[in-house]
Amino acid sequence: MKDSVRGLSNPAAESAYHLRQVSLHGRACAGLACFAARNDAPQRWLQAHGNTPPLVCLGQCYSAPAASGDDQPLHIECRARQPVLLSHLLRGGARSLQRYTELGGGQALQIALTSVPAALIAQIEASGLRGRGGAGFPTGRKWRAVAAADSAHRYVVANADEGDAGSFSDRFLLEDDPFRLIEGMIIAGLAVGASQGYLYLRKEYPDARAIVSRALAEARSAGWLGPSVLGSGRRFELSLVEGQGSYVCGEETALLNSIEQRRPEVRPRPPQITEFGLYGRPTLVNNVETLCAVPWIITHGPAAYAAMGDADSRGTKLLSLNSLFRHPGLYEIEFGMPLRTVVDTLGGGLRRGNLLGVMVGGPLAGLVPPDLLDTPFEHTALESIGCSVGHGGIIAFSDDTRVAEIVAEVFRFGAGESCGKCTPCHLGSPELARLAREVVEGGQINRQRWQALIAALQYTSLCGFGRGLAEFALAIERHYPHWLD
Ligand SMILES: Cc1cc2nc3c(=O)[nH]c(=O)nc-3n(C[C@H](O)[C@H](O)[C@H](O)COP(=O)(O)O)c2cc1C
Ligand code: SF4
């Protein structure tokens, strides 16, 4: 296939960028964790709501309501049999390559350079690793599809857009362990036959950007990146791309458009990006946390990884606990831990009020009510109650918030972030936001109209954003049937 570098010469592309000129400094965050904690600092929340465009989210949900430049120390803890993702963070972080290798980093790359690609893919398949970006797709299967696609060029992309309000795990991996991601990306490139990678990083993480830029320069001068990775004769280059401040930029096809400097809107599928992705080439897109698990799996073997976790959710997962918990912070758990243990033991319960519910996995997942807290944190069990693992953000809401207010806030977010490509989401989400607002203000709305709009979103949206908003609303109806009353 011929190279098709689309969009780079498009003079309109520059104006399509969101927030290009907007400084983040001092701006308050309008994310859902900040909404949950708004009564702790009402002025700051009002300021966040007044921002145009709104800033969502800074990844400081453990000290919400948050503002840029006003970060607090983070509590980090591992409750898995073995720390896969937090080992370096628990020992102070590894921002230099020397520190990273002192802590054992780089061994997986040495193994990968002497392995055939098929063996690397087989190891990832055997580990049972599933994507941590939200959809939980089997990682090995995706790698195999990209490797098998017929093309002379392929790309690897790390999705560091971390758009789910309530999640800050990628931010800390990027800031305190950047070489783990770089190592994971090089190994992915060797496995699928890609010699160029892109790291797509959300604009709301300026510290991560500076740290990752320095790490990339160091990796380049140490020979990890370049025309011959560690003298192996195998090429891998890695470029950092700054995100454009829109939630939908995290959706993988919109993300690829954004890298190509096109308007960041969703592409219809098929074709799948594993065949026709960035610049029309087969492309592997994986989340930061997914890629960060790769070096551990290659070093310790897939069986050790698969021995942790539960059923079809293997290994460990990072959970981000918001500021309403007594012990907010970043936790690594094995899949299968009951949500009650997450809430009561890890989080220490709420620091004020009674629990209304926990939003698990971001705004496109559901709200789990207190009587379902025995549900294990793993894909199948959460899906059976209409919720999902998502990206592991756990936002507790106390009873100073009403369910209708959460619904209104989620749809306000949805209306603001819709990319506008398809009608049910573009026109439906603002209308749903308006209806939910009416409920908050004590009005009666037409339940049938609400349900018809939700059904249109669920069945006819082009991407997971519209469908996710519908699934959120359906989970609310199921677990809080009186929310409209
Ligand atoms: C609206 C929307 C937003 C998304 N945002 C992110 C994101 O911020 N980070 C992420 O890794 N995946 C995000 N995803 C999922 C990606 O499209 C993709 O499935 C993921 O990056 C693949 O990596 P994984 O297989 O390692 O999970 C989003 C999906 C949708 C529909
Ligand atoms: S569902 Fe929403 S975000 Fe997705 S393509 Fe349609 S308008 Fe864009």
TrEMBL record:
Which residue numbers delimit the NADH-ubiquinone oxidoreductase 51kDa subunit iron-sulphur binding domain?
404-449
**Which Gene3D superfamilies does the annotation name?**
3.10.20.600, NADH-ubiquinone oxidoreductase 51kDa subunit, NADH-ubiquinone oxidoreductase 51kDa subunit, iron-sulphur binding domain
Question: Which keywords does this chain's UniProt record carry?
Answer: 4Fe-4S, Iron, Iron-sulfur, Metal-binding
Named cofactor requirement(s): FMN
What SUPFAM superfamilies has UniProt attached to this entry? Nqo1 FMN-binding domain-like (SSF142019), Nqo1 middle domain-like (SSF142984), Nqo1C-terminal domain-like (SSF140490)
Q: Please name the PANTHER family in this protein's record.
A: NADH-QUINONE OXIDOREDUCTASE SUBUNIT F
Similarity remark: Belongs to the complex I 51 kDa subunit family.
Q: What is this protein called?
A: NADH-ubiquinone oxidoreductase-F iron-sulfur binding region domain-containing protein
- What organism is recorded for this protein? Parachitinimonas caeni
